[in-house]
Amino acid sequence: MMSDSPRIYPFKRTASELAVTPAFSLAQRARAASSVRYARLLLLAAAAFLLARAQILGGLYPFAPAFLAAAAVVYPRRGVVFALPMLLGLLTALQGKYLLVYVAIIALLAAVFLLYVVDAKKQWFVVPGMVAATVLVAKGLLLALTEYTNYQLMISIFEALIAAGLSLVFLVIFTALRRFDVARRFSADETVCIFLAATGMICGVSGVSVGMFELQSTLSRLIILVVAFLGGPGAGAAIGAMIGIVPSLSQVIAPSLVAAYSFSGLLAGVFSGFGRIGAALGFLLGNLILAMYLLTAAEISAYLLSSLAAGVLFMALPKRLYTWLSRAFSAAGLKSAKEEKHQRLLRIAVRKLRNSGWMFRELANSMNELADSEQPPPESGIRDSMELLSQRLCNSCSLRDICWEMDYQQTFAGIVHLFEVVQLHGAADIKDAPDNFVKRCPHIRELLAIVNCLYDLHCRSSYWQAQRSGSRQLIANQLSGVSEVLEKIAREITDFGDEREILERELQRAVAKRGLPIESAGITAISEKAIDVWAQYIDCPGEIYCRQAIESEASRLLSCEFYVHECSCGGKDCSSRCNYRLLAAGAFSLNIGQAQLAKDGTGVCGDSGGAVLLDEGRQLLMISDGMGVGAKAAGESSGAITLVSRLLEAGFAQDTAIDMVNAALSLRGNEESFVTLDLCVVDLYSGRADFIKSGSAASYIKRGGIVRTVKGNTLPVGMLYNADKEVISEQVAPGDMIILASDGLQEMDSRGDGQWLYRIIEQAVVNNPQNMAEYLLDKVIAVSNGRLKDDITVLVAMLGEAA
User: Fold this and answer.
1) Cα–Cα distance between 760 and 748 in angstroms, integer?
2) Buried b / exposed e across 395-427, counting CB within 10 Å, b at 16+?
């Protein structure tokens, strides 16, 4: 089905690609595709021949009708061609009235599906019904024309039901074959159906011998060897048990054959790590061990001879075939069709995320190239002004040739001088004009007026051009940031998609084994240094017990020591989930304290502060001072804090996050809205602290009795169209205190030299972050006698030893 809205992707073939691509490559690919189709047709024809010969339960042939019906539906009208090899297969296996019955069934199905095209949505109901009805009609006519017994009627109904069920199996197989050209692998459900069809084909070679070798026995052992080599001991034992049942479908055999095949497949899978030779030797070893106990002396030689022949064929098959089989059946794990669908949807989502990230990155590059290409050279403005001046004023003047041709250099220098005067003083007058202009130019006043106007137009044009360039640069940075976030999400899904599902299941099981009443558990984010886990409990086991359980089990499953850095309890009634943020061992601990004080002592503080743990063990400390005081300032500062923290948590770069906040504040229309941003990002593994200043006051790092000041010289966010920010990097160690303070605290400095707060911090002997924040506020209250100049917020973080 074609899409309603076609997508057009840009494409450009380079000259080198054109040079190395032969002109007949398309014809070669067409011939190769035709060869593949013919090979597949021959293989399906051979399968139809063998399935027509397949007999089960003493005289039932249900495979042929099911195969023909499924082929005719999936390949409309063309699939009826497989009736020919089926008729040949029936001629080699049946005779008399039974041959006529099955020939009639094949002919009737071929005629029906030649005349009637089944809707794809109804095929899962129509095909089994049609197969069952056709078999019952043909068998019923046979019973009506011959001897009728209740037993024969029951057998006919049973065969019709088996054929109907097998038609669903072959529908799955043919649909998988059509999808294989795109998917290149079979799902678990499709693999089971393929092995059921292989079982029928093995039944189809029953009684056929090549010299001393019985073909059914040799092919059965070969299939067990291949599956055990590719799938391991579990798959080998399972297929051995399945193949061992095949002979019993058409003749009476000893049940010991099932055990022999299963045990041989198990050993072949165990030794498959040593390559094909190891798998073959393991299979022969299993045959030798059980042959002495389960078989007679006369049967051992034939049994081992078939195993040896299968081993030789197994070694003779090309390596490319095993590679192809391994890739084709790589998705055949213990997954249901629903899980397979989820996996496919996940892969589609990853591909769309990567395509979207690529699109945003290309848009960002285009915006950057456009901004660079529109940068005019510095002399272009002067040249344009000169041309405009000569055209508007001097074009009709009688002295134009003298000024602009004979004395061009003096005229040019004089005009530049006038522009410089306007730039310095805002306007140019007659006294500022050169003497030769005053003496010779009859339009000196008009000349000065035009120069003043041109300079004003030049300033306005430069301003708006800078605004447009800045807007494009801002959009480019934001698009680039979105691209990085999308690519990061796609990498996380790809790198930890399969592991996350296994870890969630194993984590829930491990916590439950500890006796905790856990209902479900999940992993929301995972990386090399951090993992976010949630758990839903039936009854609250207590924070200490659940923390210990999550820590120990996550560390055991990930083979790396993790500890709970942050934990939020779901409540004693377990009404919500418990969330855990775990960090890998080696991260510094960080204790945080915060204290605030409104200007009037009782109202709403206009400052906001907070701390958020980012990915890869980075701690974000934030303080924002809104414009003014009260609820309005609090709303602006808290909004800026929330937005920047959410952007950084999502994975945006620091500069991009601040630019987005600046754009949000500066585009609020006529209303003035700006805030200060004082950020500090501490890497808990390396101890590096990045201070990001945007109009904020100085920060401090206290190490014992030594205090270092971190200052920035920037304007608040939202004041300029482009965010003004400065990044200062410092190194901190365990025991250091990082102090962020709003402007209100430093405005209490009566001397204005910034040393007042410095001395208070230097003399403090408090070793607790919360006590340190409250200590600074107490000092302010004592100095101001309760009359504050502004709202005050202090955030203190103290680095501890590595966990």
Assistant:
1) 12
2) eeeeeeeebbeebeeebeebbeebbebbeeeee
How many other C-beta atoms can be found within 10 angstroms of the C-beta atom of residue 498?
A: 12
Starting at the earlier edge strand, list the strands of the sheet with 699-703.
588-597, 792-802, 737-741, 699-703, 706-710
Q: 516, 376 in Cβ contact below 8 A?
A: no
HEC readout, 304-330:
HHHHHHHHHHHHHCCHHHHHHHHHHCC
10-residue averages of pLDDT along the chain (803 residues): 40 42 50 72 88 83 89 84 89 85 89 82 85 88 80 86 90 82 67 84 80 80 86 82 71 67 85 84 82 67 79 86 76 53 69 76 74 57 64 70 73 76 76 74 75 76 71 74 77 65 79 81 81 82 78 83 83 76 87 82 78 86 82 83 84 79 67 78 90 85 84 74 76 88 69 64 78 81 70 86 77
Which residue type sits at 139?
A: K
Query: Both tokens of residue 73?
Result: 């539906």
- Token output for 278: 């190891």
**Helices H / strands E in the chain, number of each:** 26, 16
User: E-strand spans in 205-359?
Assistant: 209-210, 213-214
**Neighbouring residues of 553: CB distance < 8 A, sequence distance ≥ 6:** 507, 510, 511, 514
Is the pTM above the cut of 0.70?
no
Tokens 């193949």 correspond to: 243
Q: What are the two backbone dihedrals, phi and then psi, of residue 688, each rounded to the nearest 5 degrees?
A: -85, 135
Residue 706 CB contacts under 8 Å (≥ 6 apart), including other chains: 762
From the list 423, 428, 434, 431, the residue with the least C-alpha distance to 448 is: 428
Identify the CA nearest to 156 among candidates 182, 131, 183, 138: 138
For residues 168 and 471, give the distance between their C-alpha atoms in angstroms, rounded to a whole number.
61
Measured CA to CA, the distance from residue 174 to residue 38 in angstroms comes to 16
CB atoms within 10 A of CB 267: 24
R_g of the chain, CA atoms, integer Å: 41
CB 582 within 8 A of CB 565: yes
- Give the 3-state DSSP-derived string for 514-544, with helices as H, strands as E and coil as C: CCCCEEEEEEEEECCCEEEEEEEECCCCCHH
